[in-house]
Hints:
This protein is α+β, with helices and mostly antiparallel strands and 96 residues long.
Amino acid sequence: MAAYVVVDVEITDLEKFKVYSxxxxxxxxxxxxxxxxxxxxxxxxxxxxYPGRLVIVEFENMEQLKKWYNSTEYSGPKSLRKESANSNxxxxxxxx
Length: 96
């Protein structure tokens, strides 16, 4: 079953975040992930959620998603993201 990482990002240091953005796609690809949404325009139609930059990445399954997130390959970029942005991040399974 597919699994997704959903991230709402508020960038606080654009230059550092650009470095992160340059590193992430290759590592995501290495673990079989693919971007579904990457920072496009959003429109809030209900509630009080106004995401900064919304990113959704699909992986083959939850196990593969967690392998990516906890990998040594992603540890450096993950730290860079945390230094350059405030993020809310969740993992969610797709339809079974």
